[in-house]
Structure formats: structure tokens, C-alpha cells
TrEMBL record:
This is Peptidase C39-like domain-containing protein.
Length: 188
């Protein structure tokens, strides 16, 4: 893994293994961790009380599935029971970072791999949607990258797991039981 652009607080936060509070909040949990990787004070605040992570994730999930974004723009409302859609994750990241983010459907895996590696190396941990052959089911956060592997925060277990380039390109990795990459959310 390349040296991450995140400080010691990031290591401390990830060492607490923050887990999504329910079966539908993986995308929101990823957004909470992403913010904490950029904001040392927020990360420390989260680690002071274990219940804060779950509360923040649930609040973020509610905000990202409603009809109005964090920036006050209209978005397609989404049933919370279906998780967090990629356009809402991109909108939340745009609002919180001040940079424009977008989501890309993965039609070819090589460009998606390159986009994830480039984003992380530039200091932008990036969400990755994974699922089955038929449907996206889970969101992870790419927090480390090199030419040969990415490291993903997996909110179901709260752990950082490694995915090799070969496994990503062949869709033979396993992240929370899912093997197919569906979408990347990266700075535009």
C-alpha cells in the first residue's frame, strides 16, 4: 500500500473497527469514515464515544436519501430500505469537500481501478459499490492504494481489507461476500 495521506487519527479511528449500525447504512457509514479521514477533530470526537459512529451514520443515511441534498439541491428521493444511492454519495461528498464528485458505472474494470488508485493517491478516499452479477448490494471505502492492491474499509465488519488488482479485474475478490464492482465515486 502506498503511504496514505491521512494522519495518525485515521489509524486510530480505523483501529476501532467502526461498523455500520444496520443492514442499510453501509453507504452512510462510508461517508462518516471518509469525513473522519479528512477531519482530525471529527475523528477524535467519533472515537471518544462508541455510540457516536452509529448515530452519525444513521443521520447521514437519512440526509442522503431525502429529496433535498446537504447543499440544498433537489435529488431523486430514495427508499432508505434500499441503502444509499451512488448519486447521493457523490452529492454528499461534493457538499462536504467543496470539490465536485461523480459516480461512474463500471463497464470496464481497468479504468475503474485506475480511477480509484488515482483518487486515493491524491488524498481522496473513494467509495466503491460492490454486489452480485445482478445488483449492487454494498458500499466500501477505498482508503489505500498502490499499483497492485487497494485497501478498503468494509463497514459490515469495520475492518480494512485488501483487494489485489488481479482480483478486482477478474471480479474474484470478496468484500462482505460480494464480488462484482458496480460503481466508483471519485472526484470529477
Amino acid at each position: 500500500m502506498s503511504a496514505t495521506p491521512f494522519g495518525a487519527w485515521a489509524t486510530s479511528l480505523l483501529a476501532t473497527h467502526p461498523r455500520q449500525p444496520d443492514q442499510r447504512s453501509c453507504g452512510a457509514s462510508v461517508l462518516v469514515v471518509e469525513r473522519a479521514l479528512r477531519d482530525e477533530d471529527y475523528a477524535r470526537w467519533l472515537t471518544e464515544d462508541a455510540s457516536r459512529f452509529g448515530s452519525e451514520a444513521l443521520g447521514t443515511h437519512g440526509r442522503t436519501t431525502r429529496a433535498v441534498t446537504a447543499a440544498g439541491r433537489l435529488q431523486l428521493p430514495w427508499p432508505r430500505a434500499l441503502g444509499t444511492p451512488p448519486w447521493a454519495v457523490a452529492g454528499e461528498l461534493t457538499a462536504s469537500t467543496g470539490r465536485r464528485w461523480g459516480f461512474r458505472t463500471i463497464l470496464r474494470r481497468e479504468p475503474a481501478w485506475e480511477a480509484l488508485v488515482a483518487a486515493v493517491e491524491a488524498g481522496s478516499p473513494s467509495p466503491l459499490y460492490v454486489g452480485s452479477r445482478w445488483i449492487p448490494r454494498h458500499v466500501v471505502l477505498t482508503v489505500g492504494a498502490s499499483d497492485t492492491a487497494i485497501q478498503c474499509y468494509e463497514p459490515g465488519s469495520g475492518r480494512v481489507l485488501s483487494v489485489t488488482r488481479e482480483a478486482f479485474l477478474d471480479a474474484t475478490f470478496r468484500l462482505a461476500g460480494w464480488t462484482k464492482p458496480w460503481f466508483v465515486v471519485v472526484p470529477a
